[in-house]
Write a structure and sequence with these properties.
Layout lengths: L8 E5 L4 H12 L3 E6 L2 H13 L4 E5 L5 H15 L4 E4 L14 H29 L2 E5 L12 H20 L6 E7 L2 E2 L14 H5 L8 E2 H12 L10 E4 L7
Parallel strand pairs: 1-2, 1-4, 2-3, 4-5, 5-6, 6-9, 7-8
Length: 251
């Protein structure tokens, strides 16, 4: 395995399980030093221990990233631990299902805080360090940022905002050495939906429209795209959104 991230430091949010953990595994196999952030303490420690056992430098921080101060503290802790920061991967996400008229304020608030505000606060804190290393940011958006998706309106709105935040930040730093991009997965085999209530009376025909014809992708497939986007091989990619949705947004 090529060690093209040897000497580089990668901070990954939502890295206790699912897509974040798969992303961490690939970065570790390619030589990166990792700083993992998640709110799930037990699962985070399992992932950290698993990667550390392979010899990868790996530290972790339990944090509720819905709070700006915690996002800032995580970036500061990563830089303190390793002395630099090369890649920020905003992977963490919150998802809820329900009709527009039934969405509670608490659900709207947590989805916006985790999916949109946290990537902004992490980026705000990380950019000064990334400018020093000519590093980059990879935000995980969604096919729901590009097409209308019934019954997940807050999620879709947050991911649409994340996509435009990515492009706008990329424009602001067009003359700098850093790169800022997004990856937009479709349906994946991950735990993001675990414990999420889905009302039985939702119109399945409307949900099938954005479920896709092809089977859900494996998290590792999307993680490979995230790592590629963060690598020097993607040096010409800036302000882009790379889709990995099995063709759902193709037409």
């Amino acid at each position: 395995m090529e060690k093209d991230f040897d000497g580089k430091v990668v901070l990954i949010t939502g890295s206790a399980r699912g897509l974040g953990a798969e992303t961490a595994r690939i970065f570790a196999s390619r030589g990166a030093s990792l700083f993992l952030v998640d709110v799930l303490a037990d699962r985070l420690e399992q992932t950290r221990a698993e990667l550390a056992a392979t010899g990868a430098p790996c530290q972790a921080m339990v944090a509720d990233i819905s709070q700006r101060a915690n996002c800032q503290a995580a970036v500061a802790a990563a830089v303190k631990a390793y002395g630099r920061l090369d890649v920020l991967c905003n992977v963490a996400a919150a998802l809820r299902f329900g009709r527009v008229t039934d969405v509670p304020e608490a659900d709207w608030s947590i989805i916006m805080a985790v999916n949109l505000s946290a990537p902004f606060w992490f980026s705000q804190a990380a950019i000064p360090h990334l400018l020093e290393t000519n590093g980059n940011i990879v935000n995980v958006a969604s096919q729901a940022a590009q097409i209308g998706c019934a019954y997940i309106v807050p999620y879709s709105a947050s991911k649409g905002g994340l996509l435009m935040m990515t492009k706008s930040m990329a424009m602001e730093y067009m003359k700098a050495g850093i790169r800022i991009n997004a990856v937009a997965p479709g349906t994946m085999k991950t735990e993001i939906g675990e414990g999420v209530h889905r009302p039985d009376d939702l119109d399945v025909e409307l949900m099938v429209r954005y479920s896709g014809v092809r089977p859900p992708s494996e998290a590792k497939e999307v993680a490979e795209l995230i790592v590629f986007t963060a690598s020097d091989r993607a040096s010409a990619i800036h302000g882009a959104c790379l889709s990995a949705d099995g063709g759902v947004t193709a037409g």
